[in-house]
Design brief:
The strands form two sheets. Strands 5-4-3-6-7-12-11-8-9-10 form a ten-stranded mixed beta sheet, sandwiched between helices. It has a two-stranded antiparallel ribbon with strand order 1-2. It has 28 helices and twelve strands. It is of the alpha/beta class and 724 residues long. The chain folds into three domains: 23-417, Na+/H+ antiporter like fold (Up-down Bundle), CATH 1.20.1530; 421-555, HUPs (Rossmann fold), CATH 3.40.50; 558-724, 3-Layer(aba) Sandwich (Rossmann fold), CATH 3.40.50. α7 packs antiparallel against α16 and α11 runs antiparallel to α12 (233-253). Helices cover 60% and strands 9% of the residues.
């Protein structure tokens, strides 16, 4: 049996005996060759300091039927290529800074119009007066020039610049340009079909309205429902992919290019999939590892360079298309950069992201092949098709190089612009997360992941305390399982972890000793279940930690997944700005609001609100914050009544003897038990120590002295009116 398997391998006389006739059709070998390209292209081209995206495309040219004819562009390349371009557009919407988009919507619209209009004019003039095409063919060529594809977007993600202003403007402009081009194509198709009357445009408008209604009304509701109901990561990943392609299918059914649907699906899912979650890491990993490289290789396999060496007409067409297309996009980027007063690196980024032509151009060429000027005579001939495909190759190369250079420059600019003196105070972040209840592990892990400072790249410490009176050893087994689950969730988010299982007489002693040994900065714990009606709202262990430790303690109880929260309501006591841990808890809550993309509302006195506003404008200028005037007659009951199921109530309190402490705070746990057992709740005990002398730096100088004086001297707290 073994001989019959091994012997033929030694009887191979040529490569054809192994692969069969070229191109290779064996699916196993095809997939192996594609994976080899994906593996080795980055290695080779990174050494040459060339973006590896170019390597993927050039490798596709080499192995394609117009190159060495090693691989045929079969259905797998068409399928994975379609998935790849949808994935690029989806990630562009998913990683976009929505607050930045809102702030830069005027710039995005302006650049979108310019990067569509200027190339459109260039393409129309080139088609009419240089290439002598008909008006219809020239308009189609102009639409190809006007649209573009975010082929180089993975480079942006690799450098962590998805929220850079120039990137946000470019992505928004891409959608504007694509939409304008699609509208023009629809009108052109209507003219050729002889149906451009009122009924045609009314039906087209109805389809557009249906599409946007489905995306922006139906999609958010089903995404929220699914994320609240299911937590399995495989199911979540599959669900998100299904929604992406459903959006693409709905777009195509409404006569719109599917990539627009994929982008809008990413935009809708943006606030439900924070950057630091395991789901986001999985989505990026799968796209960058398989789907996007497959798309780039497939684009390269379309390129046919033979006409450039055999037909002078083809050389002329390619030269005109490439020069006109590149020059027009460059002019639009430079003009927009000067209008918006951005840096040269930002202008280069805008040009790089809007230069590449791929999926949209191919789709429009196919439209030109379907439309006929007369029976059997397509609107666009083979010369234009070859010219557009070569333009796709060259534009993708130029786009990748320009984007990579711009990304390097912008990253350097970011590092130079960071003033070390302006970093948040006391950022010695080292978060300890005790996990003893298996049902709360996922909630605590996701909370810690969202609160941690990703720029510091520090890991999390997970602790499980085992009572040393454990004769059966069952608690030790459960401890190992809890820590492994936390480690698994963090590994999926690519976050370093340190796990510890500690024997102790009781939970409080174990946590306190671990906290001091690891020199932790704060603790995040769950709101433990009460074992008897007489237990406090905080459970049996939290009061002991609060009385023993002076560092920050965050107690959290979430009834819905953290990524489905839509609003954070923060109750802040008077004089909170004078506590040593003021900037620490404010930074954690602000970071959570930014990552979740939700609105945050502070209920505080005028003095405290002014300092919070100054801090946020310094470190989180794009946060969506609101402030409510301090109401002495308000109570926790009023807060509870106004909270929805997807709101988080954050209560900032204080330990006995602290500057912001009042006697009525002792009643807090009874009020919480009465009104917040069915609400999303977070209780923060700020770090204690020397009074925070730096808080006043975050308010306007002309009112600073008045606020500080009034805060220090006013010891009777209006805040306690909120508690009862």
């Amino acid at each position: 049996m073994t001989a019959t398997i091994i012997t033929p391998l030694f009887q191979l006389n040529s490569i054809s005996d192994l692969f069969g006739n070229l191109p290779i059709t064996n699916h196993v070998w095809v997939f192996f060759i594609v994976l080899s390209i994906i593996l080795f292209a980055p290695m080779i081209f990174n050494r040459l300091r060339i973006p590896h995206l170019i390597g993927m495309i050039l490798a596709g040219v080499l192995v394609g039927e117009n190159g060495l004819n090693i691989l045929e562009r079969d259905d797998s390349f068409q399928l994975f290529g379609q998935v790849g371009i949808y994935y690029i557009m989806f990630l562009a919407g998913l990683e976009m800074d929505l607050a930045g988009l809102k702030q830069n919507q005027r710039q995005g619209l302006t650049f979108g119009v310019l990067t569509a209009l200027i190339p459109f004019v260039f393409g129309l003039l080139a088609g009419l007066y240089v290439l002598s095409y008909s008006v219809a063919a020239s308009v189609l060529l102009a639409c190809i020039f006007a649209s573009h594809t975010l082929v180089a977007y993975p480079i942006v993600g690799r450098y962590g610049l998805a929220r850079n202003n120039s990137v946000v403007i470019s992505v928004a402009a891409t959608m504007v340009a694509l939409l304008l081009a699609l509208l023009t194509i629809a009108g052109l198709a209507g003219i050729h079909s002889g149906d451009t009357g009122l009924q045609f445009w009314l039906w087209f408008t109805v389809k557009f309205a249906i599409f946007f209604s489905v995306i922006f009304i139906f999609f958010p509701r089903i995404i929220r429902w699914f994320l609240r109901k299911y937590t399995d990561q495989v199911m979540l990943f599959t669900f998100v992919l299904a929604m992406v392609f459903l959006a693409g299918a709905v777009a195509e059914a409404c006569g719109i290019e599917g990539i627009l649907g994929a982008f809008l699906a990413g935009l809708v899912a943006n606030r439900y999939i924070p950057r630091t979650t395991p789901l986001m890491m999985r989505l990026e990993f799968v796209g960058n590892a398989i789907f996007i490289p497959y798309f780039l290789i497939g684009v390269g396999m379309l390129v046919n360079l033979t006409p450039l060496f055999t037909s002078p007409k083809a050389v002329e067409v390619v030269a005109i298309i490439v020069i006109a297309g590149t020059l027009s996009k460059y002019i639009a980027a430079v003009l927009s950069r000067r209008i918006f007063k951005l840096s040269r690196a930002s202008g280069l980024m805008m040009f790089g992201l809007t230069e590449a032509h791929a999926a949209g151009a191919l789709a429009m060429v196919m439209v030109g092949r379907r439309l006929e000027v007369s029976p059997g005579v397509p609107l666009m001939d083979n010369a234009v098709l070859d010219g557009v495909v070569v333009m796709i190759l060259i534009s993708c190369i130029i786009s990748s190089i320009a984007t990579d250079q711009a990304a390097r420059s912008l990253k350097i600019e970011e590092k130079r612009s960071v003033d070390r003196d302006q970093l948040p105070l006391n950022d010695d972040e080292k978060i300890l997360v005790p996990i003893n209840e298996p049902s709360k592990i996922e909630m605590l892990v996701h909370t810690a992941l969202i609160m941690r400072n990703t720029n510091l790249n520090r890991g999390l410490i997970f602790l499980n305390v085992v009572n040393d009176d454990d004769p059966t050893g069952l608690l030790r087994v459960q401890s190992k399982d809890c820590l492994q689950e936390a480690e698994r969730l963090c590994a999926a988010a690519d976050v370093k972890v340190q796990t510890q299982s500690r024997l102790a007489v009781n939970f409080v002693n174990g946590v306190v000793h671990a906290f001091r040994e690891n020199d932790a900065s704060e603790i995040i714990i769950g709101l433990h279940h009460r074992t008897s009606p007489n237990d406090s709202m905080l459970g049996r262990f939290a009061p002991g930690l609060i009385n023993t430790l002076e560092r920050q303690i965050i107690i959290v109880n979430l009834l819905v997944p953290i990524n489905t929260l839509r609003r954070i309501v923060v109750a802040v006591p008077e004089r909170a700005q004078f506590e040593a841990g003021f900037t620490r808890w404010l930074e954690r809550i602000s970071r959570m609001a930014v990552e979740l993309g939700c609105r945050i509302c502070f209920h505080a006195t005028e003095e405290t609100a002014e300092i919070i506003r100054g801090y946020l404008s310094t470190y989180h200028p794009l946060i969506r914050d609101e402030y409510s005037a301090f109401d002495n007659d308000a109570s926790l009951e009023e807060f509870a009544v106004n909270l929805n199921h997807d709101h988080l109530f954050v209560l900032v309190t204080a330990r006995h003897g602290a500057i912001s402490y009042e006697r009525r705070m002792a009643k807090m746990q009874f009020m919480l038990r009465q009104y917040f057992t069915d609400k999303n709740l977070m209780i923060i005990y700020p770090e204690q120590g020397e009074a925070n002398s730096n808080a006043s730096t975050f308010i306007n100088p002309h009112i600073q002295s008045d606020h500080v004086a009034s805060g220090v001297n006013r010891w009777l707290s209006k805040w306690i009116g909120k508690i009862g």
